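Tutorial sheet, problem 5. The two components below are modelled jointly, 355 residues in total.
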Amino acid sequence: MKLKRLVSFVLLALALAALIAPAQRAAAQKPTPSDDDVNRIAHQLYCPVCENTPLDVCPTEACRQWRDLIRQQLSQGWTEDQIKQYFVEQYGVRVLSEPPRTGLNWLVYVLPPLAIIAGAVLLLRAMRSWTKQPSATKSAEPDQQAPKDEYVRRLEEELKNRK
Amino acid sequence: MTDSTIAASAERRGVPVWAQVIIWVVLVGLLALVAVMLNRRQQGTVQPGDKIPDFSMPLFSGYELNGSSQVKFADLRGKVVMINFWASWCKPCEQEAADLRMAWDYYKDSGKVVFLGIDYVDTEPEARAYLRKFGIVYANGPDLGTKVSQLFRIKGVPETYFLDQEGVLRHVQVGPFTSVDDIKAVIDPMLR
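Model answer (structure tokens):
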């Protein structure tokens, strides 16, 4: 009875091991990263040598080497953040397409919305003053008219007196 | 105060003074920042006569300096130092690589000259292949984070800097050397 139980236990263990082993092998061997996988990360990086060229579209030999490096790192199981961090350490923070939100870099994120808001406020105020101006000129008209009428009145009076 | 002056002052009441001050301060600050950055960009490389601030950098395994995997510029005082910025993807660098190797062969036993190669924005496997290809054996390391190249304000590669025994820059070579004699013509007067 004991032997039977032992055999069934061993068989069960073997069956479990057979099920788990391929899954572990699959996890260990990462599939070769596709061009899309590489370019997804390369797009977030800029060529450190050529000005203003994203790494995914940069045609130089140096950029090809860097894309190969990304492919190699992906196949070794590196995460996107680890790869970006590696590039920053090697080539400086300027390789990032999106500057990190630290120090003076904050200006890049804060100033454009502030400028848009300030512009909108100024425009609103200008539009308000434009709509107010016609009524202001209207109210000014009687005042301008008054001296004119007075002058005409006096002129008419003078003319009358002459007669 | 008449009705018209009250109306006029209300009309004039726009952006508060404190807001105007902030806006002007920010604008002037931004302009100053842009001016400083433009000025820095137009400065060019460090010039002969400039004293180079101290820096340290790692060296590639197999390309150490006196067995150390880290080089400190301050430790090189008393020797003429040649600093060459290069990269494996740089074709003009290949033109001078053999001349630099020959120059190192000429000076290495004197103990008075240090050659230091700085690999600018490169990948290590390609950099090592380049060094092997041209038989370069003097100290070499990567410019991590482009810190050293920023210190020298280099404009590209290859660029070579010659510093005297006091750490003062004596000569700048922008572009490749065309012969080993050109390199000797810079170093020899510094050794006298």
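Marking note: The mean pLDDT of chain A is 82. Full credit if you identified this.
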